[in-house]
Amino acid sequence: MRFFKKIATLALIIPILAAQSVVSKTPRLTEEQRIVHVLNRLGFGPRPGDVERIKSIGLENYINQQLAPERIADTLAESKTQDLSALKMSTAELYEKYPQPGQLIRRMQDRGMLPKELSDAKGDQKNPQENPEYRKLIQEFYKENGLEQPQRIIAQLQASRILRAVYSERQLQEVMVDFWTNHFNIFFGKGADRWLLPAYDRDTIRPHAMGKFSTLLQATAQSPAMLFYLDNFQSVSPNANGGRAQEMMMNAQQRPRRGINENYARELMELHTLGVDGGYTQKDVTEVARCFTGWTIFQPRGGAAAVNALRGEEARTRRPAGSFFFNMRAHDDGEKVVLGNKIPAGGGFNDGLKVLDILARHPSTAKFIATKLVRHFVSDNPPPALVNRVATVFTKSDGDIRETLRAIFFSSEFYSPEAHRAKVKRPFELAVSAIRVLGADTNGGPGTHQWIARMGEPLYGFQTPNGYSDAAESWVNTGGLLERMNFGVALAGNRVQGTKVDLAQVVKQNTDKNRMVDESLRMILAGEVSAATRDSLMKKVDPADPVMKVVGLILGTPEFQRQ
Amino acid sequence: MNRRFFLRSGSIALASVGMSLSAPSFLERVVMGREASAAGGRRKVLIAIFQRGAVDGLNMVVPFGESNYYNARPSIAIPKPESGNVESAIDLDGFFGLHPSMRSFKPLWDSQRLAIVHASGSPDNSRSHFDAQDYMESATPGVKSTADGWLNRYLQAKKDSKASSFRAVSMTRNMPRVLMGRAPSIAMANLNEFSIRAGKASANVQSGFEEIYAQQNKDVIAKTGRETFDAVNYLKQADPGKYKPENGAEYPNGPFGNSLRQIAQLIKADVGLEIAFTDMGQWDTHVNQGSSRGQLANLLSQFSVGIGALYQDLGRRMDDVVILTMSEFGRTVRENGNRGTDHGHANAMFVMGNSVRGGKVYGRWPGLKDDQLFEGRDLALTTDFREVFGEIAISHLGATNIKSVFPGYHLTRPNRLIT
Fold it and tell me: Shortest CB distance from B216 goes to which of A424, A556, A558?
């Protein structure tokens, strides 16, 4: 089989692999098992017909296709996400079209342009938001002026993630978007990040998810969303002469403490590149922070974008609101030493670029990224030999993400029985895989996302920079498991708002309950189910039971929680 | 199955959960937990309440004895205590007073069950809600990479091999940062949701899942599933739908009152609860926060009436319960141009319970003169919030390995809040 020839060829090239090939002594996965495994790990699980499709084109071809997503047509996902208009807007447009009501009203009041009825309803003493009349007038005002509430932005972004995961033919691309979104995690609830995240997903993560790690790293470093989330936008050198001027552009609420903010510098090394034991010191954190002083955001909270747009005024600023810029006046231009590398004085913007270069190519980074990728794709306990080989490929290919992934997908460990169905699905993976396996139709809206949140993984909802865990222990708990079962039952019963299942297309209602159960198990789990679970189902299913009960139970089995 | 368990559990019918031949592990642990309590070590409970959005501590616990307070707040200050004036501050000790909408706290103060720690909070000077909440919940101010919350680290440090699934419960939709971590805990918006929800078919579907999860022995997911159903069934016996508060307690309508009522319910159902958490929002009063009446007054009323009802409802059980309130930072000493207050620094915390040395405002008062203010604008900090958390963890909950709960911090315990 060509597929195994490929492994053999690799074994010749990379001597370490030769020793690993011995693994094939253990019982091997069947062809169908391998296909389902690849559909689960390189994607969000099989849809009806996927296994047959891959059988006909060949597994190796399928993997190679997935590694080149730009060559895969994706019209269905594009059309499904077509109406999510916020995701096509620039950040400045989002500030104009999705303003925070309180902020907008204050600015309108300051400029004397608040309509009288709104001003009256707002009154003086009451909390205006608790006044239904006022809220209604705001809604009307928003409608008349073509504005929308800011929470709609994240709802659209979450919907796009669900829709693409369900419908995209570029499944691996979506898996990598999910992976990097967690690796470079950002919480939508932090200040302006709600407005900054669509550009982060569209311009920072997606274009580089399968490219070079160094390019991706630089894109995140310059992204307003990350600069805001990890506070670098307000990191100002205490020696910088332009600091005061920058402060004066801000009002008292957002005025930064003068001085260096080390937050980004620390997480950049701990979480984005080297790993916590990657060999950096507190001194390195401070030096890196100095290098990034002045990497900031123009009008991080949108400034007067919304109120100017309402007046029909063109933005007269030099830059669009919410865009990256390097503020030389806030930069510490002295000499720095980062991980033993001297960065001479006078480097300006290049200081930060040099740091990213050092970090992206550091051996600790190769090890750290390889470990995380192997944990994600293979096992919660990454086999050290595989991690080493993958790290070597990462380094030799200058951080080429595709080549690194290829080393995983064509390794023997990836297809080992130990790796098969060993990973517990995260709630997003669980929800999407259930929708896909039933061939359900979804709009990806809040009704569906809410379930993912209840199971514990609201998208862009993880507060701290480490992102959602990739290990089973974080997901196997009483509350989360109960919601997983409830989700399965709700989905099968067509009670997930915005998602429609036509079970008749999947499994036929059958008075022979054995046939009904087995057919459902074949559809949903490719028949890979323990005898105990099958027996329990047979025992608990009545011939008169609707097929939706059978499907709901199967979606809630321990087996379906795994991939 | 232990007979004493049935004897003591009184009205709680256990027929359906007691059926299987081998005792379910969850029930075993409940039984053993009760035996431990019979031996004298009664289970202590902490109820932690987060006021999200930064409550204005200076109008909640009013330093009416200080003229600078009135100079700084011409339109929103709370008037000095004055007999017969229900809009004036409620005198506590001749210097501090409660906001007039917090009358339900007065009896607790008078009976010395309510302590206040003023000028307390985070030593980090962040004025970002997000960062400050993060620091207060991780209890590592200034360190963002801390993966778990301090209450979860407490659970990890004080290992309890007999812990029930309900050892730590957050009455919130999502798991709060403070309970995130390796130790198991449950988050739920409503007790009634803690079940299989399939309409009329619920019981039938649940029995199907129970069978599936009962038959798989080694799988870690199946094991968790069995514990889940033990817990679900146990809670069902407590019948959350039919709960009647005791001692004439009346909880306020709304999500906060509901959460508190359900916490009381869990405590009374003896499900092994040790840590309960809930929160209340809307405290970010930048505009028209009001004075004796208005926006903040309404919030404080809901807050104090709710906690007062909880206290009343739990009755003698408050011997073993401590209620702790917190908020991420205080608000500016001076009112702003919109008759509101902006993000500040130190704040006030309440600690309540029959074992609390109450009737006292703890912490050194730093003063409100211009040169006494933090960064020229905010109430200065004199008590690190970890002192308060730490003392409760040690003196009330009996935590031992406290260094792992508050990494990098050395507790001084000056206050002795708990008897």
Answer: A558
* Residue contact A482–B228, C-beta within 8 A: yes
Burial class of A143 by CB neighbour count within 10 A (0 to 12, 13 to 18, 19+): exposed
- Reading the block at residue A230, the tokens are 């990890």
ipTM confidence: 0.89
> Would you say residue B53 has pLDDT above 50?
yes
Indicate the domain borders of chain A: 2-66+381-415, 202-360, 427-561
Q: At what angle do helices A531-540 and B202-215 cross, to 10 degrees?
A: 150
pLDDT at residue B27 greater than cutoff 70: no
Contacts of B298 in chain A (CB under 8 A): 127
Q: SS3 sequence, A202-260? A: HHHHHHHCCCEHHHHHHHHHCCHHHHHHCCHHHCCCCCCCCHHHHHHCCCHHHCCCCCC
Closest chain A C-alpha to B220 CA, distance in angstroms? 8
Select the residue from A119, A464, A474, A516 to test the B interface by mutation, using most B Cβ atoms within 10 A.
Answer: A464
Contact A556 B177 (CB under 8 A): no
d(CA A208, CA B81): 64
Collapsing DSSP states into helix, strand and coil, what is residue B97? strand
Residue B243 main-chain phi, psi, to 5 deg: -70, 135
Residue extents of the structural domains in chain B: 45-190+248-405
Residue of A nearest to B331 (CA): A253
Q: Is A191 in the B-facing interface, judged by CB distances under 8 Å?
A: yes
Q: CB burial class (10 A; 0-12, 13-18, 19+) of residue A496?
A: buried
Question: Which residues in chain B are contacts of A252 at CB distance < 8 A?
Answer: 342
* Cα nearest neighbour of A275 on chain B: B145
Query: For residue range B278-329, what is the model confidence (pLDDT) as tens digits?
Result: 999 989 888 789 999 999 999 999 999 999 999 999 999 999 999 999 999 9
The encoded tokens of residue A278 equal 């990657």
CATH 3.40.720 assigned to domain B45-190+248-405? The reply is yes
Determine phi and psi for B158, rounding to 5 degrees. Answer: -100, 80
Q: Whole-angstrom Cα distance, residue B63 to residue A264? A: 39
Tell me the C-alpha distance between B184 and B67, whole Å.
49
Q: Looking at chain B from residue 133 to 162, which residues have their Cβ under 8 Å from any Cβ of chain A?
A: 134, 138, 144-147
DSSP bridge pairs for A442: A499
Using the Cβ of A531 and the Cβ atoms of chain B, whether some distance falls under 8 Å is answered with no
Flag whether residue B272 sits within 8 Å of chain A, measured between CB atoms: no
Closest chain A residue by Cα to residue B287:
A127
Q: Does B288 touch chain A (CB under 8 A)?
A: yes
- The vertex-B380 CA angle with B377 and B385, nearest 5°, equals 135
* Cα angle value A507/B202/B231 (rounded, 5°): 120
